[in-house]
Design brief:
Elements (H helix, E strand, L loop, with lengths): L1 E5 L4 H4 L3 H9 L3 E5 L5 H6 L4 E2 L10 H11 L3 E5 L3 H10 L3 E4 L18 E4 L8 H6 L1 E4 L18 E5 L7 H11 L5 E5 L15 E4 L4 H4 L5 E4 L3 H10 L3 E3 L6 H11 L2 E3 L7 H10 L4 H12 L4 H7 L6
């Protein structure tokens, strides 16, 4: 069977689809991946045959994908929530398609069109999923498996706290405030600075290390807490590892993600007008009390169908 994956050209949207794409490849299916060139390098290393449809760099429109559907004639299209026009192109071509989520169903007004209709590969555990989506959508549960490019880092042996604001929302001001608050704890703070240059953060305390990038999927299972912006990938990665979270939401779907985590008891939250170094210290010290709830969700995630299991079922959805 030939399967075409399609997604936005960003780590936050492409990487959640990678485990199923790899599982489909390992199951013997021919896998191709339509996305902008920004994510081609890791997809190529995984043998997922990435290509840029037409002039797409980030978004993919129906007219971008339609010639590729004629060329490849896939038996099934699996497309991310962020590329709704891939669903239109597949429907016009008469090719079955599945939506692939990246976390909780996102709220209106964040710059993405909410998907409607069809079956959804849902990687969000039900305990934190959006309730209307949970009760009305055709959902195919899929275990979220964190993916990041592998790397070689030697982490300190003392307790670790991981701080990231992702690749799109970080600012020197917010990172500096969080660093000051976390450095007061008896732990080593590993910071992924993302789009902020480490040099822009100035000197940091001795128990803080700055990296422009870290292999997040390798690091998160080692830490005692994750302090982050509330992006879906980091949220699900910490939940899968059973690690409590302190969320500093900055925009997009991050406020809704933070609300859901707090309601589930797996996290605490500081809104932008609440953020200070002292508040970060105070909230981070409370996180051990939320470890049991985080571990309960990790067990829930472990019970969801694995990418290998779902990949074996994909032919049922093909033409």
């Amino acid at each position: 069977m030939r399967v075409l994956f399609a997604g936005l050209a960003s780590a936050g949207h492409t990487y959640p689809m990678v485990p199923l794409a790899v599982a489909a490849r390992d199951a013997g299916h021919e896998v191709h991946f339509a996305a902008g060139e920004h994510v081609h390098a890791p997809l190529s290393r995984l043998g997922l045959r990435p290509f840029r449809p037409a002039d797409a760099f980030y978004e993919i429109y129906a007219e971008d994908l339609e010639p590729e559907l004629t060329r490849l004639r896939p038996d099934l299209v699996v497309h991310g929530w962020g590329v709704p026009e891939a669903a239109i192109a597949a429907r016009r071509a008469g090719i079955p398609a599945l939506w692939h989520g990246f976390g909780r169903m996102f709220p209106e007004g964040i710059g993405l069109d909410r998907p409607a209709g069809g079956a959804h590969l849902d990687i969000c555990p039900p305990s934190v999923q959006d309730e209307p989506f949970l009760t009305t959508a055709e959902r195919l549960p899929l275990r979220p498996v964190p993916y990041s490019e592998p790397g070689h880092f030697e982490w300190p042996s003392r307790p670790l706290i991981y701080l990231t604001l992702g690749t799109a929302f970080g600012t020197p001001e917010v990172l500096t405030t969080a660093i000051r608050g976390l450095s007061a704890l008896d732990a080593h703070v590993v910071v992924a600075t993302g789009r902020v240059r480490p040099a822009d953060l100035g000197s940091v305390p001795g128990n803080v290390t700055l990296h422009s990038w870290v292999p997040q999927a390798q690091l998160v299972p080692r830490v005692s807490a994750v302090v982050h912006h509330g992006g879906s990938g980091t949220t699900l990665g910490a939940l899968a590892a059973g690690v409590p979270q302190l969320v500093l939401p900055q925009g997009a779907d991050q406020f809704a993600n933070a609300d859901a985590l707090v309601a589930a008891g797996a996290a605490l939250r500081l809104l932008p007008d609440e953020l200070s170094a002292d508040a970060v210290t105070e909230q981070a010290r409370k996180l051990p009390a939320h470890r049991e709830a985080a571990r309960a969700i990790a067990e829930e995630i472990a019970g969801l169908p694995s990418p290998d299991e779902v990949a074996r079922e994909l032919p049922k959805y093909a033409k």
